[in-house]
Structures are given as structure tokens and as C-alpha cells.
């Protein structure tokens, strides 16, 4: 198993546990159905779709290389939105979903800005890499599903009820922020940050203050200043992802503190 | 500081239904009861639960369920205001799905009591609550108060005005979090109590001498580090900080009968007739649950004979303003004003 796949495997285990928190409202594209709850039966179809996407994206870049005047880069998004693989990866592994959108816009912007073909090909390479990485993640997910290790993706949101579960949900939501930003839905991304803070982080910060007030203050700043500013100032997707990944490291620490706090708590009665 | 007896509480805050304040107070007070004295809960109950203190409300529910194995408790969770809207809509449509509604703020409770969905509570329940918190159609559970955390090395308590409005004319360096929802509710209260012009002037005055923070814990931390002399924050940030760092250079001051010492409360409403919802409410008012929420969440217990969190002034020494807390939902004019003045 490559390092990348190992990382995906670890993250998938964590993200599967929070799959039930995916709501239909959070999914911009695609219905939840058999193609996400019975991945194994659809792996062949997804593999075909990745080949098809690679070929379609390639045709756009080839058209640019041949100076085709009828070239429309919006076709890149249309191809991606056409495939079932789209919702499979969106529900299974949001970080790569974000990378695919980042790749699509990388190619689109390079063409729209009339960059040299070598630059466009470089972006295309990154996009193809993200697609195959995504297929690897979905294959792995199908194995977990077959072994019954994960719940089905639900169409209604389930609220986390413990402090550690809230932190897991926050991390998933932050991945979704990066995905929405990569999709160039800045307002959706900003609203998601705001809602995550108000609906999730505010509920656990009280317990954390006594344990590590500096950590809570840093996360408050991240939620209210650093991340919204990174989005509103149109920084690169990688910059926004860096902010989120730094927050997720702090959130891991917060989670451990909440687990400890719960162990030391006296019973209600 | 001038103090007056804490009589008004939330009764004067207006979430009283149609019962006059004096009548709400006519009920004689009883002490808190132990869970050991309560009847067992049996049957089906659906609770709409507003998001609150992380897992602590869930721990309370789990403990109640564990103690009452024949209780089939279903919980729907969401934001308090959203759930209140749902209950109002369900009531209008004649579809009743919830038997109880536990909300984190009084504004959401008010929406439900106004809609006529709330069932009256017996005096044996309401009389357990402290003076000023006894209402016929809902029960407060715990409270929180606006405070002025100050740096004990930089400021003496007597230097802090007991009027929130006077702070704008002081030389004190102030910490605030204008983007924070609790602060915006507090400014809304000021707008309602003091008027648009006075609030606008106050915001401008404070802004000259203020340092901005992202959140109110940040304010308390800034005060503790000595970056500012005094700040605006709900009481529990300071108490929680002090619990983790007892020698922190921060203490609490309170203003007198104005928005600066506004009290808000979580509360519960029975939406179905019968003993079961009422008896469920009795569990939340037990000495054990009230002490648990005071100890673990630093919330203010509102039942008789239950100690407040350590470090907080007694309720009887506070003097919150008379204000219908339901009006705090009217946030838009506040945000417009704050943007206009340039603090947002």
C-alpha cells in the first residue's frame, strides 16, 4: 500500500464513522442511493467513469492545444457533474472531492487565462491524479462497506451527542468547507464555517476552556477570523486547506481533552 | 456599587404568558427535591432539545433514561429557535409531535408560550424555583448573566462604573467581541432599554477605547493577560478559566439594572397534558441535576437551595433589567447600527 493510500485508509476509517452526519442539504450534487450505499456493485461503473472523465478532460486540453475557437471550458464542470462517481466520492472522502474541484478549476483557469500548453498539461496531470486517487478511496470504501464496518449514508442529518463526536463532525464539516471553496462556492463555504462555529464548536468550547483556554482562544480566532478571511480574500485552495488542516490538528488535541474530561466527570445521580 | 434586590428576574423579562408578575410571585416557595423522592417515569415521551452545553444535557438525559428503564424517550435535536419555529408550525397545523421542549434561550421559549402550545405547570413544580423565576406555563432550568470581567492587577473594583452606559465615558481600556452573538444580544437589549441614539453613542464611545477580540473567551483571556482593563462577556467564561487557572488575574464586576447585567435562561415547556411530561420536568429541577449543571457547565441553578457556581455573585445581589427577552430575537436593527457605526 502506498503512503497516500495508507493515509486515505486511515482517514476513511475516521470519515466513515461520521458518514451518517452527511445531510442532503450538505450535498450539492447527486442523490444518495444505491450507488453510494452499495459501492461494490458499482466499482466497475466508476472505473469506466474515471476513464471517461480522463478522456473528456483530455479532449478539452487537446482542443486548447489545437487552438479550437469553439472551446468552452465550462464543459469541464459539466463532465464532472454528469457522473455518478461524483456523489460517491463526495459522500465517502471529501478531501479528495475538494482536490478534484481544485484540479478542474486549475485546468479551466489556465486555459481561460491563455497560459502556455505546458502549464495547462501540468494542471491536467494534477486533475487526473486526483481522479485516480478518488477511485482508490472509493474502492477502499467499498471494502469497508462489504465488511459492514460503516453505516449507510443517510438522507437526514444526525446530530452528534457527545463532545468527541462533535469534534469529529466539525472536522468533517471543515473538509466540506475546503470542498465548497474548491468548487468556488465561497458564500456556501463561509456560511458553513459560521454554522459550524455556532452549531457545533460553541457547544463544546465551555468544557475545553478549563482544560486549555489558549487552545480554545486559538480555535475561536481560526473560526471567526483566519478561515473566513482566507476565503474572503480569495486565497488559493491550498492556502484555505492549510488553515483547515492546522485547525484539525488543534481539534485533535481538543478531542483528546474532551475524552479525558468525560472520564473524570461525576455521575448526574 | 448600588444594588437592589433581584426581584424582577425573568418574570419581568416578560415570558409570563398572561399572568401578572405579582401573581407569579404569589406562589409560595419550596425547596429543591432529591431525585429519590420522584415517581418513576414510564411511557413514551418526545423531547425537542435545543443545542446546549455539548454533551452535558445529553448526560442528564442519559442519567434520566438509566434511572427510568420503562421510559421511551425520543429526542429531536436542533437549534433552539429552529425547533421553536417547528413547534409553532406543528401547533398551527394541528400536528403535535413533541411532548416537551428544552431550549437554551428564553426567546425561543417565548415563541412557544405565545403560540398557546404550552401546557400549564402545577404549583408544586413552579414553587421549587427561586423568586422571580416562577412561571405558570414554562420552567426555567438554568441561567447565565452578562458580566464585566476585569484585570485584578490593573483595576480596583471601585474604578468600574456600575452603569453600563457610564463605561463609554471612562478611561478604562475595554475588550469586546462585536461579532459575537452574545454581545449582539446584549447590544440589542441596550437598544431596547436605552434607545437607538444612546446605544449608537455608546458604541462610538466604547469603540474609541476598545480592543476587538474574535470571541468572548478571547475577551476574558485578553483581560487576564492585561491587554485591556475590563471586558464584556457572559459569566461562565471567567469561571471556567478560573477553574483551570485559579490564580488568573481576572474577577467579575456587575452593572446595575441595565443591559450590562442581563440574565438569560434555558427553560423547558410541557406541550402535552398529563403527568409524564410534568414529572420529566421535575427531574430537571432536582437538586442533583441543578447541582450537576452548576458544577459541570457553570450555569446558574434557578431552583431553591442549590448553590451557584463558585465565584459568581449570589442571584439576590444582582439587579438585571426589566426586559422582555423575546425581543432579543430582533437582531437586524442592531447589526445595521453596529455596521453603520463601524464596529462590525
Summary keywords:
heterodimer, A: 269 residues, mainly alpha, Four Helix Bundle (Hemerythrin (Met), subunit A), 2 domains, flat, B: 344 residues, alpha/beta, D-Maltodextrin-Binding Protein, domain 2, eight-stranded mixed β-sheet, three-stranded parallel β-sheet, 12 helices, 35% helix, globular, disordered N terminus, iron (chain B)
Average pLDDT across residues of chain A? Answer: 85
Number of strands of chain B: 11
Gyration radius of chain A (Cα, Å) is 20 Å
Question: What's the number of helices of chain B?
Answer: 12
Show unreliable segments of chain A: 1-5, 13-30
Please tally the helical runs of chain A, counting DSSP H or I stretches of 4 or more residues.
10
What's the oligomerization state? heterodimer
CATH superfamily of the largest domain in chain B: Periplasmic binding protein-like II
Largest sheet of chain A: none
Question: What's the shape of chain B?
Answer: globular
Estimate percent helicity of chain B.
25-40%
Largest beta sheet of chain B, briefly? 8 strands, mixed
The fold-level CATH name of the largest domain in chain A is: Four Helix Bundle (Hemerythrin (Met), subunit A)
| Largest interface, chains and sizes | A-B, 32 and 38 residues
- Class inferred from helices and paired strands of chain A: mainly alpha
Structural class of chain B: alpha/beta
What's the helix and strand layout?
The complex is a heterodimer of chains A (269) and B (344).
Chain A (H helix, E strand, L loop, with lengths): L2 H15 L16 H4 L5 H23 L8 H9 L2 H8 L1 H19 L4 H30 L16 H20 L3 H47 L4 H27 L6
Chain B lengths: L20 H6 L16 E8 L5 H12 L3 E8 L1 H13 L7 E4 L2 H9 L8 H4 L12 E13 L22 E3 L4 H14 L1 H13 L1 E3 L3 H10 L4 E2 L1 E2 H10 L5 E4 L9 E8 L4 H10 L2 H11 L2 E2 L30 H10 L3
Parallel strand pairs in B: 1-2, 1-3, 5-6, 5-7
Antiparallel strand pairs in B: 3-10, 4-8, 4-9, 4-10, 4-11
Amino acid at each position: 500500500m502506498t503512503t497516500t493510500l495508507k493515509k486515505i485508509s486511515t482517514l476513511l476509517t475516521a470519515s466513515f464513522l461520521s458518514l451518517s452526519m452527511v445531510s442532503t442539504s450538505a450535498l450539492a450534487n447527486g442523490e444518495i442511493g444505491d450507488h453510494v450505499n452499495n459501492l461494490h456493485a458499482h466499482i466497475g461503473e466508476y472505473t469506466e467513469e474515471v476513464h471517461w472523465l480522463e478522456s473528456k478532460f483530455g479532449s478539452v486540453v487537446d482542443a486548447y492545444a489545437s487552438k479550437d475557437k469553439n472551446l468552452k471550458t465550462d464543459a469541464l464542470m459539466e463532465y464532472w457533474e454528469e457522473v455518478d462517481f461524483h456523489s460517491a466520492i463526495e459522500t465517502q472522502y471529501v478531501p479528495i472531492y475538494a482536490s478534484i474541484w481544485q484540479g478542474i478549476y486549475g485546468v479551466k483557469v489556465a486555459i481561460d487565462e491563455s497560459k502556455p500548453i505546458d502549464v495547462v498539461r501540468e494542471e491536467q496531470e494534477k486533475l487526473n491524479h486526483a481522479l485516480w486517487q478518488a477511485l482508490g478511496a472509493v474502492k477502499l470504501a467499498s471494502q469497508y462497506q462489504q465488511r459492514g464496518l460503516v453505516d449507510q449514508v443517510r438522507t437526514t442529518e444526525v446530530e452528534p451527542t457527545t463532545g468527541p463526536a462533535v469534534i469529529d463532525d466539525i472536522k468533517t464539516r471543515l473538509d466540506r468547507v475546503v470542498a465548497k471553496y474548491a468548487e468556488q462556492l465561497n458564500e456556501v463555504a463561509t456560511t458553513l464555517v459560521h454554522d459550524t462555529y455556532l452549531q457545533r464548536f460553541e457547544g463544546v468550547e465551555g468544557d475545553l476552556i478549563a482544560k486549555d483556554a489558549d487552545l480554545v482562544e486559538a480555535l475561536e480566532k481560526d473560526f471567526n477570523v483566519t478561515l473566513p478571511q482566507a476565503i474572503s480574500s480569495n486565497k488559493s485552495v491550498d492556502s484555505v486547506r492549510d488553515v483547515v488542516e492546522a485547525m484539525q490538528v488543534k481539534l485533535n488535541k481538543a478531542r483528546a481533552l474532551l475524552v479525558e474530561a468525560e472520564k473524570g466527570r461525576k455521575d448526574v445521580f | 456599587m448600588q444594588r437592589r434586590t433581584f426581584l424582577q428576574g425573568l418574570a419581568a423579562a416578560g415570558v409570563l404568558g398572561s399572568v401578572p408578575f405579582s401573581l407569579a410571585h404569589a406562589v409560595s416557595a419550596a425547596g429543591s427535591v432529591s431525585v429519590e423522592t420522584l415517581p418513576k417515569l414510564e411511557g413514551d415521551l418526545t423531547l425537542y432539545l435545543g443545542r446546549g452545553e455539548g454533551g452535558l444535557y445529553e448526560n442528564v438525559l442519559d442519567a434520566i433514561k438509566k434511572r427510568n428503564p420503562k421510559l421511551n424517550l425520543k429526542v429531536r435535536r436542533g437549534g433552539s429557535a429552529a425547533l421553536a419555529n417547528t413547534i409553532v408550525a406543528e401547533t398551527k397545523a394541528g400536528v403535535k409531535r413533541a411532548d416537551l421542549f428544552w431550549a437554551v434561550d428564553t426567546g425561543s421559549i417565548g415563541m412557544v408560550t405565545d403560540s398557546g402550545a404550552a401546557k400549564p405547570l402545577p404549583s408544586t413544580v413552579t414553587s421549587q424555583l427561586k423568586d422571580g423565576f416562577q412561571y405558570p406555563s414554562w420552567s426555567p432550568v438554568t441561567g447565565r448573566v452578562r458580566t464585566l470581567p476585569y484585570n485584578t492587577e490593573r483595576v480596583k473594583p471601585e474604578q468600574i462604573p456600575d452603569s453600563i452606559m457610564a463605561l463609554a465615558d471612562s478611561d478604562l481600556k475595554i475588550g469586546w467581541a462585536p461579532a459575537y452573538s452574545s454581545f449582539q444580544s446584549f447590544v440589542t437589549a441596550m437598544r431596547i432599554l436605552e434607545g437607538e441614539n444612546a446605544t449608537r453613542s455608546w458604541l462610538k464611545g466604547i469603540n474609541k477605547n476598545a480592543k476587538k477580540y474574535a470571541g468572548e473567551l478571547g475577551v476574558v483571556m485578553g483581560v487576564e493577560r492585561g491587554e485591556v482593563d475590563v471586558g464584556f462577556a457572559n459569566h461562565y467564561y471567567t469561571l471556567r478559566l478560573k477553574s483551570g487557572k485559579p490564580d488568573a488575574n481576572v474577577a467579575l464586576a456587575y452593572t446595575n439594572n441595565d443591559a450590562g447585567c442581563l440574565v438569560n435562561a434555558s427553560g423547558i415547556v410541557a406541550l402535552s397534558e398529563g403527568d409524564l411530561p410534568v414529572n420529566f420536568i421535575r427531574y430537571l429541577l432536582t437538586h442533583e441535576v441543578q447541582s450537576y449543571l452548576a458544577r459541570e457547565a457553570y450555569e446558574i441553578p434557578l431552583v431553591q437551595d442549590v448553590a451557584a457556581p463558585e465565584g459568581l455573585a449570589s442571584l439576590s445581589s444582582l439587579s438585571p433589567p426589566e426586559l422582555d427577552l423575546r425581543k432579543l430575537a430582533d437582531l437586524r436593527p442592531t447589526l445595521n447600527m453596529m455596521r453603520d457605526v463601524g464596529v462590525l
